[in-house]
């Protein structure tokens, strides 16, 4: 897991230069008028989801983890908390792994609260459980969720 300022985003370009180049170009073209939806930058292996995320209290959610994709959460307005853990060792699994959605769910348990606001990002590697969209019930925040196939960063 990496949490940093968007000012330092290009510091991580060495992880996957072509991926960062495509992401930087997408970010540069993003405006307030950009419609919500999924934008493929290199087919399904690299895409950006622009969403209006509905926030909820931590008690109403659950952890999710991925096996194939790296997530990067980037809030565009307002604040959001993401509850994180380095692994799922002590968590009760709530669902079978869904390969089509690259997701498995776990019970909520104590973790590290990462507060995000515009200008910051959180990069989450496969296998790292996280519970996004924690905040005041019913609040909606516009955010980007970048999905990068981990194979692109090898």
Please provide a brief summary of the model.
With 154 residues, this protein is mostly beta strands. It is built from one helix and eleven strands. The protein has a single domain, classed as Jelly Rolls (Sandwich), CATH 2.60.120.370.
Properties at a glance:
11 strands; mainly beta; 39% strand; 6-stranded antiparallel sheet; Jelly Rolls; 3-stranded antiparallel sheet
* Total count of strands: 11
- The structure class reads mainly beta
Q: Could you say how many structural domains there are in total?
A: 1
Corresponding CATH superfamily: YhcH/YjgK/YiaL
CATH architecture descriptor name = Sandwich
Terminal Cα span: 16 Å
Strand percentage lies at: 35-45%
Biggest sheet features: 6 strands, antiparallel
| Order of H and E elements | EHEEEEEEEEEE
* Low-confidence spans: none
Fraction of residues in helix:
under 10%
Average of pLDDT = 95
For the record, the CATH class is: Mainly Beta
The helix count comes to 1
| CATH fold annotation | Jelly Rolls
Write a structural description.
This protein is mostly beta strands. It has a single domain (2-153), classed as YhcH/YjgK/YiaL (Jelly Rolls), CATH 2.60.120. It is 8% helix and 39% strand. The protein contains 1 helix and 11 strands, in the order βαββββββββββ. It has one helix spanning 17-29; strands at residues 2-5, 37-40, 46-54, 63-65, 69-75, 80-84, 104-106, 112-116, 120-124, 130-134, 140-149. It has a 6-stranded antiparallel beta sheet, with no helix packed on it. It has a 3-stranded antiparallel beta sheet with strand order 8-6-10, with no helix packed on it. A two-stranded antiparallel ribbon has the order 4-7. A hairpin with a 5-residue loop joins strand 2 and strand 3. The longest helix is centred in the first third of the chain and has 13 residues, at 17-29. It is globular, with a radius of gyration of 15 Å. It starts with a strand and ends in a 5-residue tail after the last strand.
